[in-house]
Design a protein that fits this description.
The chain is α+β, with helices and mostly antiparallel strands. It contains three helices and 13 strands. The strands form four sheets. A four-stranded mixed sheet has the order 4-3-2-13, with helices on one face. The chain is globular and about 50 Å long. The two termini are about 30 Å apart.
């Protein structure tokens, strides 16, 4: 099975032509199979399937992140369909320490009381550690994405995204 591709970038446009009432109609009826194209500022595209249980909620989250200027973290399968949506946070690094004398690291961020772990087995580990250390040393925040349940860091990016002119919604 091919590995999912990751996109972390500002949203340039949401290609949709559905109303809120269509997406959130009361009752057990699922929306019919409808796809929304998400265009990112780096010219990548992804498809959101609104017939999936999380689809309408994810569309609302993507709209909100777009309005706030926050780049979403999405994993996309080989067909371009979004399989995971998470919200990165822009955080300054407070400290980096070994976790329980193992190969993993405990990362502390200003403004957060959670224990954040960077596992050695995480793809991109070396790059993430280097960026986190540079962030701590030079005192600049980084975009951090982590799992919801365990606060395991799965992505770290500098705050150098191409800012979209303004995410727009287009009917397709």
């Amino acid at each position: 099975m091919p590995r999912n591709r990751t996109i972390v970038e500002h949203i340039e446009a949401l290609g949709e032509n559905l109303s809120e009432s269509t997406l959130f109609a009361a009752g057990p009826v699922k929306p019919t199979s409808k796809y929304v194209t998400i265009s990112f500022a780096n010219d990548e595209k992804a498809i959101l399937d609104l017939s999936e249980p999380a689809g309408p909620t994810w569309l609302t989250v993507l709209r909100s992140l777009s309005d706030e200027g926050v780049p979403p973290y999405v994993e996309v399968d080989a067909r371009g369909k979004i399989t995971l949506l998470l919200q990165p946070k822009l955080l300054p690094v407070a400290s980096i320490q070994p976790f329980e004398e193992g190969p993993d690291l405990r990362i502390e961020f200003h403004y957060s009381h959670a224990i954040h772990l960077l596992r050695r087995k995480t793809p991109g580990y070396e790059q993430f550690v280097a960026l986190l250390r540079e962030s701590q040393k030079k005192k600049f925040p980084v975009w951090v994405t982590e799992t919801l349940e365990k606060h395991e860091i799965i992505d770290v990016r500098p705050d150098n995204f191409k800012k979209p002119t303004r995410a727009k919604e287009t009917g397709e």
